[in-house]
Specification:
Elements (H helix, E strand, L loop, with lengths): L1 E5 L5 H13 L3 E5 L5 E3 L2 H13 L13 H12 L4 H8 L1 E3 L26 E3 H8 L6
Parallel strand pairs: 1-2, 2-4
Antiparallel strand pairs: 3-5
Helix pairs in contact: 1-3
Length: 139
């Protein structure tokens, strides 16, 4: 049974920690609306940090940091999984989508209450950050 999670207006770190716990339990998880997840903090600083990560390393040998919102979320979840065979198998059960694909339109999406955005400080959406980083806008 696959769990569908709606990432719109959810804080990225809290969303990723909840998803990684579900993946470790052995459940398959699909995340929709990846471009609407938020990162807390000053948007200019978040863009600076992500831009430094994307430009870091060698273009042929890495490390490789994604620019697209769905790949950013997948990388964050990957960082919260164990670095062994169990973690690799868990990551294979994760699917992240920009907007809602046709195959998941009829399924009910779950909202994670602990990851909801109740911030009073500055924040920005991953879709906006990705556009500034040079991602090909597909959403």
């Amino acid at each position: 049974m696959e769990t569908v999670i709606d990432a719109s207006n959810c804080i990225l770190g809290r969303l990723a920690s909840n998803v990684s716990k579900e993946l470790i339990k052995g459940k398959a998880v699909s995340i929709i609306n990846a471009e609407k997840a938020v990162i807390s903090g000053n948007p200019k600083y978040a863009e600076k940090i992500l831009r430094e990560n994307v430009k870091r390393g060698d273009p042929y040998h890495g490390p490789f940091y994604p620019r697209e919102p769905d790949q950013i979320i997948k990388r964050v979840v990957r960082g919260m999984l164990p670095k062994n065979t169990k973690g690799r198998n868990a990551l294979k059960k994760l699917k992240v989508y920009i907007s809602i694909p046709e195959s998941l339109k009829d399924k009910k999406a779950v909202r994670i209450g602990s990851a909801e955005n109740r911030l009073e400080c500055k924040y920005t959406e991953i879709g906006k950050l990705s556009g500034k980083l040079g991602a090909k806008v597909r959403w």
